[in-house]
Design a protein that fits this description.
Two copies of one chain form a homodimer. Chain A is of the alpha/beta class. Chain A is about 40% helix and about 20% strand. Chain A contains twelve helices and 14 strands. Chain A has a six-stranded mixed beta sheet, sandwiched between helices. In chain A, strands 7, 8, 9, 10, 13 and 14 form a six-stranded mixed beta sheet that branches. In chain A, helix 7 packs across helix 8, helix 7 crosses helix 9 and helix 8 crosses helix 9. The longest helix of chain A is centred in the last third of the chain and has 30 residues. The model of chain A has no long low-confidence stretch (mean pLDDT about 95). Chains A and B meet through helix 6, strand 10, strand 12 and helix 8 of A and helix 6, strand 10, strand 12 and helix 8 of B.
């Protein structure tokens, strides 16, 4: 039995196809594609099919699970509109059972229509299924391209105090910062260069992908988002974008200075994630951390270290590729239980 | 004699045409147009001509002064490239004498080519000419759509410690925050709603124009920048954009709550400007302030009040329309002296 789990984010659509044999996982295959849902949500159907066909013929899929966060993009007036629109696209596409990951479990289309908000930004619910298998009492920290989920798990069950994205913005459980797409000006106010503090320009001149590209902390194939200036993804082009953040250019700043700036920015983002993790850890009395997502090593683990918290990496149990799409794997697993 | 002064910014191109009679100002006419230079710098020539023709036939213009900040946009690899590109466009367009506002004064094209960086982001030099007439020892604070210049003047001469945008980012003299285009996440980390602090999403979901639109602090005709989601400029559409900043929507937040959020955001931006003003005021031992620009009343004056500094408004000497394009007026005045 083959189950597809999609995690439809604002910027990336992730897929995991799990092949089950006698109820056990035989094989997991994963992939993802950059799809900016704020401008190209009309291409969602083509993207979903493309992704599946790269892994296996769509006819071999027995069921499809869907989790989403893309309902927040500003192409939709409300989350309700976004959830319904995305679900409608999915229903037209597949002839097999489809389930939607919700805060209350897995919903059919019928149940989704009764309470669409239950499905909004519930993908961390899917991730918590996998993490609970690794550690029954812990906080998992999942930093993707754009956001960081910090979710407490007790006795194998997630117990996030905030339920929606909005609520989790106030509980430390959602830190809206990520490995690739984050505007540097959102978490850095000034950057020290040669002993002086330079305040940053409030434009979208550079994103975190540029910083980790310059520092060599992400692979070329992981730099999947668009660049801020439409130019390329070489280290020099990333450095040029970073130089603009302090109203400079590469005539003014050297590569060594850009590297120093990048290290400072990296540290600031670690501190930002640590701040949410500290809040959740102290409130819930949990001191074990499981890290995952594209930023698991360079951001989540560093945040745990900063707070002297014990941490395990999902990377010790799954491949790096699987960790990047953890919510999609969790979605497929929840869908399997739903139809079994 | 009619002199045109253009201030070519990244997002707005401003024009003042000053009609001189016997060396004295007889009449000032102004206008401005939204021109996003990062994506449409090929339309600069058409925009300059359009603007002039709205005020008077281009044949009646005796000389043209140019100041700029648009060389920073990411369509240009370096500031030098940007300055040369913009100057080349201007030279093709006008058959009368053209001068470029530089830190060292007014340059001909020949001198500009020898030192293009002298012309980069020198428009505040032009503003200082006007302000010095109002107050010989003061700090002027000019908040435009995108940035805030905070420039000390002593004995009628500007004495900014930083000379370039880059240097001024470290001296308090450039605070990269403005009345319209500023991403809220660049200066707000969290927003209190009903007693809880909600952390903001690091997207470009809403800009300061939305906040001042909701609060009724800018006129409809001043809301000249593009909206973040491509939707309209009604109060409700602005409120919807602001709701997304905390991952909410207008199903979750009421207009009253959005208004409370907007007041908090306004206060944070006042504090941001006050922080630069405080640094300059204390360092230079100056306690008189002259406020100008689109944000003169709602931002600059509030920042001066917060610091208990005496302030005058350029609005007491010039019309509101003239204050909005103060660098363009200063540019025309400097050009007049250059050719006289």
């Amino acid at each position: 039995m083959k189950i597809a789990g999609f995690d439809i984010g604002g910027a990336n659509t992730d897929l995991a196809v799990i092949d089950f044999e006698n109820g056990e996982i035989k094989e997991i295959k994963t992939d993802f594609e950059y799809l900016p849902m704020w401008s190209q949500n009309d291409k969602l159907d083509a993207t979903l099919i493309d992704l599946i066909e790269k892994i296996c013929p769509v006819e071999e899929i027995d069921a499809v699970g869907i989790s989403m966060t893309a309902e927040l993009v500003d192409a939709f007036e409300t989350k309700t509109e976004g959830v319904i629109d995305i679900a409608t696209t999915c229903e037209k596409l597949f002839d097999v059972p489809i389930g939607y990951i919700a805060l209350s479990g897995v919903l059919s289309l019928e149940d989704l229509i009764k309470n669409p908000i239950d499905v909004a930004a519930a993908n961390w619910k899917a991730t918590s299924q996998i993490v609970a298998e690794i550690e029954k009492d812990c906080i998992f920290v999942d930093t993707g391209s754009t956001t960081t989920d910090i979710i407490p798990i007790k006795n194998g069950e997630e117990c996030a105090k905030g339920r929606t994205d909005f609520e989790r913005s106030a509980t430390g459980e959602l830190v809206y910062t990520g490995t690739l797409r984050t505007n540097l000006t959102s978490f850095v106010d000034f950057i020290p260069i040669n002993g002086k503090d330079y305040h940053v320009a409030s434009e979208l001149f550079a994103s975190t992908a540029d910083v980790y590209n310059v520092l060599g902390l992400i692979k070329d194939e992981d730099f999947v988002c668009a660049t801020c200036d439409g130019a390329g993804k070489s280290k020099e082009e990333s450095a040029r974008r970073i130089s603009r953040v302090v109203c400079a250019d590469l005539d003014i700043l050297s590569m060594d200075e850009i590297t120093e700036m990048s290290k400072f920015i990296h540290q600031k983002q670690v501190e930002q994630i640590a701040s949410g993790l500290k809040e959740v850890s102290e409130r819930e009395g949990l001191d074990k951390v499981v890290v995952t997502g594209l930023g698991k090593d360079i951001l989540c683990a560093e945040a745990a270290k900063l707070l002297n918290l014990d941490f395990k990496s999902m990377g010790d149990y799954y491949t790096d590729e699987e960790c990047v799409v953890a919510p999609a794997i969790g979605t497929a697993l929840m869908m399997k239980n739903f139809i079994s």
